[in-house]
Each structure stands twice: as C-alpha cells, then as structure tokens.
Write a structure and sequence with these properties.
The complex is a heterodimer of chains A (325) and B (334). Chain A has 325 residues and is of the alpha+beta class. Chain A has 7 helices and 20 strands. In chain A, strands 1-2-3-6-5-4 form a 6-stranded antiparallel barrel. In chain A, strands 7-8-9-12-11-10 form a 6-stranded antiparallel β-barrel. Chain A has a 5-stranded antiparallel β-sheet with strand order 15-16-17-18-19. The longest helix of chain A is centred in the first third of the chain and has 21 residues. Chain B contains 9 helices and 21 strands. In chain B, the strands form 5 sheets. A 7-stranded antiparallel β-sheet of chain B has the order 5-4-1-2-3-7-6. The termini of chain B are far apart. The chains are: A alpha+beta (325), B alpha+beta (334). Chains A and B meet through α1, α2 and β8 of A and α1, β9 and α8 of B.
Chain lengths: 325, 334
C-alpha cells in the first residue's frame, strides 16, 4: 500500500510541463558554470524573498515553538504535524512584524508530518502560492525560511539556500541547513512557490527533510476538516481516558463540591480550591461524581476544560488543559 | 484487490532505477566541487586576502589581510596566548607573527607579520546588501590554496547581546559579604589577579553588598569592556581592572541549548557583538577570522563566530574599518 504515493506522483508528473517556460534555466544545469548563472539564482531569490518571508510565521505552542507558512488570504497555515501536535488545539501564530494571533490546529497526517492551522482572528493575511504541479526536480535550487530557535524580531526569520538532493515517496531532501524552530517552515522554489514544509533534520548537516506539497494537496479536505490521519510517528492520536484532572468531588445541590485538590495537578495549577463548587464542566452540570468520571473517560490528555465554579457565592471561570494520566 | 496490488507493485518496481537516480551526486550539492568551481574568481581573490594563522602544524583560524606590509585582523580569542604564531598569506609562510593590539569587545586582534607587497582586501561600498546575496568565505586550506564555502546573507544585521549577560568570572561563597569562592579559569577576574577569599566591595564606583547589587551594576555593560573593582584581601583594600566576559563564554558547556547539542562545534566566543551580519554558511569554528567576500571578490566583513550549525556571524565592513583604525592607533602608542 506504501506504493500508492509513488503511483500518484507518476500521474501528477505526467501532467506537468505547462510551466516549463517559468522554470529558471539554472535548474537544468548540472551546476552553475559561473557568475551569470549564480546571478540568476541570486536575483530570483532576492526578488521572491520579501513575499515569502512575509507569509512565514512562528507558531508558539506552550513552551515550544516552530514555524509555518500562510497559504490563503484568510489565514490558513501549513506546518508540520510534529509542530501542531494534535487537532483542535489553541496555538499562537506570530507574524513577521511580531503581531500575535489566536489560531487553532486543524487536521494532520501523522505518517508524513503534514498539518494545517487556521488563524482565528479575522483579517487579510500575506500568503504564498502552492506549487500544485509537483514541478520540482532533483537538483533544483531552492530556499528555506524558518524562525530558528524561536521568534526574534531583530533578527527576523532566517533564509538559507540549497538544492534538492533527494526525492523519495513522501519526502524531499535539500541541503538547506535546518535547526530547531525551523520545523514546519516553508521550502520555496526560485519563483517563490511553496514546494515543501520542513520536517526532520538529518544528523548530517546537509540532509534536511521536507514534506512535499502532494502530501497536503491529496489530503486537503480531510486536513481542513480537522481529521487526524494515520498512526504516527509524527503525532500521537489522543487516547480516550488518558486525561487527568487531579481533584476529588462530592455531590452538592448546585453541582459537585471539591473535597481535595491534588498537588502539582492541572486542577491545582489552574487555581481550583478545596470547597469550590463546580457548577459547569464544559457546559454540563453534574451532580454525581460518577457523571464526571464518565465524561473524563471520553476525554484525552491535553483536551481543554472550562470549569465554572462557585466560590463563596462568587462565580469564576477556569480554562485549562487535562494532564496525562 | 490482489490484482490491483500486483499492478501497483510492478509500477513500483519499474520506478526503482528511477528512484536510484533520485539522489543528487555529492559533487553537485551546494558544497560540492562542481558548484564550488563556479566561484573560482572569488576564490582567487580570497587566496590573496584570507590569511591562515597557524601554531606549529595546527591551523588555528583565518585572518583578513588589511595592509601590504603585513597587518592582519583575526579572531582574538583563537590566537591569544599562542607563542609560536605564524601566518600563511597566499603561498608564503611568515614566521614570528605577533599580536600587536586587541579589541576585546569585538574579539578582534591585529596581527603583524614581516611582509611586503601583500594584497589587502578591497572593501565593498556597503555591507547593507539584500538578503539572498551570494557570499563566500574560506572553508578549508592547504599549504598552497584556499577553498571556498558559499552561502547567502540570511538574516537582518543586528546586535548579538552577551549570552546570559556580562560577568566577572567569579563564583561567590560568602553569605554576608561578597567573598570570592572560585575564580573561573581564563576569565578577566583571573587575569586581573583576583583570588579565592577576596571580598568585592565596589564595582565601577558603586558600593556592592549583595549579589543583586553586582547584577545591577553589570546589567547594561558589554562583554569585553573593563570595570574597576575594589576588593579586600588580608585586611587591605586593593583595586583591579577586570575584563567582563559573556557568561556563555565562561560557562560554555553548562549553557548549551538543544540546538547547540545538535550543532556540535561552535565558537567559544559567539555572543556580545555590537553588530553582525548573518550567513547560512556551515563552517567550522576554526574557519572564522577571514574575510566574507561578495561575487565581485570585495570584502563585506570579517567572519567572527560560528554560532551554530546553520549560522555564521560576520562583523560588517563599516565596523571592521573602525576597529582596524583603532587597533593600529593602539599599536602605534605601543
């Protein structure tokens, strides 16, 4: 079954050629022969860079960060599955100018490392065109962008040049060097079209793996609809019942009264106190602790919890994530 | 279903010869011989203006030739304390290379060899070239020739603050007073003669009583600058001038990030620079110190640190010229 992508790739390859006129001739030379060829690469890169850079974003998730790239004016972001880490998670997208935007992870393909994120704040965002024709060939000159080591406004994102050094089923490899924080960032051809997303870094400095656009285009609708595809290794499917709250409750006329809050638990970190009465758990009112236990059995580690509590007559809302059991 | 699988399998097999070709031969990769040979004119320029500083058989670091009579700029922290320093320019080996002045803020040393008729670097009109501009540096060297590493300007020019701030290089042990428990090897404190048991009472004219006071005095100071310190020893009060170091430089191994572990080799002094350009060239920590050239073979600046596996820092030519002038003045005062 792993042959299917190859089969598709062959079909898609046959359909290209229309854009041949746009293809810089330097890509078809074994190597640049001198200054003129080098200048063709340089001027294409300098010209394509501003727009490419503008669409490249930093993605902040908890303590970590990765990169991504906007591909539609309404803020659809492509990134790596090991960056988004799951479906429906809240993340922060940081634009080139440092502006932070609320976003949510959409679907992911856990076997090839493809994922989507949607910026949730309305706006018109800078974006790049995707190469839908799989026109990239071995030896093509390419450039990568990423927020290496996290967002740094003074430095900006970092660009690196290289060639496509290997093409395999669901991976393309370049000699654009990558480092932590670049993951999820974009790989472009010389015309500024998006051809891949940074995935894994080889221990060899000059071997860096990117997810090709075909892995996004063939799963486009499923990814947009928030599906979790495949069994890993780049993301782990949430396991029902793996979520951990960390408190003991008893029945109360208004809901569930907190008897005890465990030390160093998600509930304690969120500020739940002994004596609080939980009047709503994710919009539901429970009066029996069995009901809460049953609800938790359907949830997984890292799922979001919104608690409404009554503390001495005062109503508070606490939002946090379940820990791992 | 079976037939379908078999069909796919056959197609898969027929792809194998193709798949075998889906690897770019190493000579055609970015650092491969074929690509590098496209930079022959730049290499020829580098051959003349990139010096190689050596100690015995060991290649220490490269240098920028800045005068026809043998002045070379290089990375100070890589040549300091070397007693048998020599330099190769083009194909000639010059013995008795001497460090004649040092700029500790920029980590640049001015070295003199007894030579004449050298070809100093030609500076580009500006270091403010667009990102994506091709640049080359010296990547490897033999006795006879220099070899090119090529890449591009890859990020905004900017200051690189001292990692973890600037530090004296001492560990304090006293609870009630600022008694020195340990002096860090190779630190400015060690050079200034501070010892275990000394009690620090004043830094840069400000009385200090607790660790927070020291942090306050040092917080806006830069690595490489010097502060005056008053301390007590054996009942007497003494003064010393201590060169501040970047904490990352003093405690390098302990401050390694995950990216550092991935990167392996990097320059010991790689932060605390007032302004740098950044390139995407992957070099060794001993490949810095030489010039960064554009496609015209003109110098854009001096490679000053391998920051990590994907980033090399460069002192811009404007700042480099100023450093050069200052160091010559210092050396002349002698």
């Amino acid at each position: 079954m792993r042959l299917l992508p190859t089969f598709l790739a062959i079909l898609v390859c046959c359909a290209t050629g229309a854009r041949a006129d746009e293809r810089p001739y330097v890509n078809d030379l074994p190597a640049p022969e001198g200054r003129k060829d080098l200048e063709v690469i340089q001027s294409a890169l300098v010209e394509a860079l501003p727009q490419a850079r503008e669409a490249t974003v930093c993605i902040e998730i908890g303590e970590g960060s990765g990169s991504g790239v906007i591909v539609s004016p309404d803020g659809l972001v492509l990134t790596a599955a090991h960056v988004s880490g799951g479906v429906g998670k809240e993340v922060t997208v940081v634009l080139e100018d440092g502006k932070k935007l609320k976003a949510r992870t959409l679907g992911l393909e856990s076997e090839t490392d493809a994922a989507m994120i949607q910026i949730e704040e309305e706006g018109t965002y800078p974006f790049v065109e995707i190469d839908r024709d799989s026109s990239t060939r071995l030896g093509d000159w390419v450039f990568s962008i990423g927020h290496s080591g996290g967002f740094d406004k003074d430095r900006g994102s970092v660009v690196r040049v290289g060639r496509i050094v290997r093409i395999a089923h669901s991976t393309i490899q370049s000699d654009c060097s990558l480092i932590g924080g670049d993951s999820g960032g974009p790989l472009f051809d010389l015309t500024g079209r998006l051809i891949g997303i940074h995935s894994r870094v080889g221990m060899a400095l000059a071997e860096n793996n990117h997810v090709p656009m075909t892995e996004y285009t063939r799963n486009w609708d499923a990814l947009k609809n928030g599906e979790f595809i495949g069994e890993g290794p780049f993301a782990k499917k949430p396991v029902k019942g793996s979520g951990f709250l960390g408190l003991a409750t008893e029945s109360h006329p208004k809901g569930l009264r907190v008897m005890k809050v465990g030390k160093k638990t998600p509930a304690e970190d969120a500020g739940v106190k002994e004596g609080d009465v939980i009047t709503s758990f994710n919009g539901k009112n429970f009066k029996d602790r069995k009901e809460l236990q049953d609800e938790l059995k359907e949830m997984a580690a890292d799922d979001e919890v919104v608690l409404e509590i009554d503390r001495g007559g005062e109503t508070k809302t606490l939002t946090f994530h379940l820990g791992e059991r | 279903m079976n037939a379908e699988r078999i069909l796919l399998f056959i197609i898969g097999l027929s792809c194998l010869p193709l798949a075998a070709q889906q690897n770019l031969p190493s000579n055609l990769r970015k650092t491969g011989a074929e690509v590098v040979s496209a930079f022959e004119p730049q290499r020829a320029a580098m051959q003349k203006c990139s010096a190689v500083l050596v100690s015995g058989r060991k290649e220490l670091v490269y240098g920028v030739v800045v005068s026809s009579d043998g002045l070379i700029l290089t990375k100070a922290s890589e040549v300091q304390g070397i007693t048998d320093l020599e330099a190769t320019v083009d194909r000639t080996r010059y013995k008795d290379a001497k460090v004649i002045a040092i700029d500790p803020v920029w980590d640049v040393a001015l070295v003199k060899v007894d030579a004449e008729g050298l070809e100093p670097v030609t500076y580009a009109p500006t270091s403010a070239v667009p990102q994506g501009t091709w640049v080359v540096m010296n990547g490897a060297t033999t006795r006879r020739s220099r070899r090119v590493l090529a890449g591009i300007i890859s990020a905004n020019a900017r200051e690189i603050p001292a990692e973890g701030g600037a530090a004296l290089g001492v560990a304090l042990s006293g609870e009630k007073k600022l008694e020195i428990g340990k002096v860090q090897e190779g630190s400015g404190a060690e050079d200034a003669g501070l010892k275990k048991g000394d009690v620090i009472i004043e830094i840069a004219g400000a009385k200090v009583k607790k660790i927070e006071d020291i942090a306050e005095v040092l917080k806006d100071r830069k690595a490489g600058t010097v502060v005056k310190i008053r301390y007590e020893r054996d009942g007497g009060e003494f003064e010393a001038e201590v060169r501040l170091a970047a904490k990352g430089e003093l405690f390098g191994d302990e401050m390694q990030s995950r990216n550092d572990v991935m990167s392996g080799d990097f320059s010991k002094r790689r932060s605390g620079f007032p302004k740098v350009l950044q390139t995407d060239i992957i070099c060794y920590s001993h490949s810095v110190g030489g010039p960064l050239l554009d496609l015209d073979g003109r110098c854009l600046g001096m490679n000053i640190a391998r920051a990590n596996r994907a980033e090399t820092f460069v002192i811009p030519l404007e700042e480099l010229k100023e450093i050069d002038a200052r160091l010559r003045e210092t050396a002349a005062k002698g």
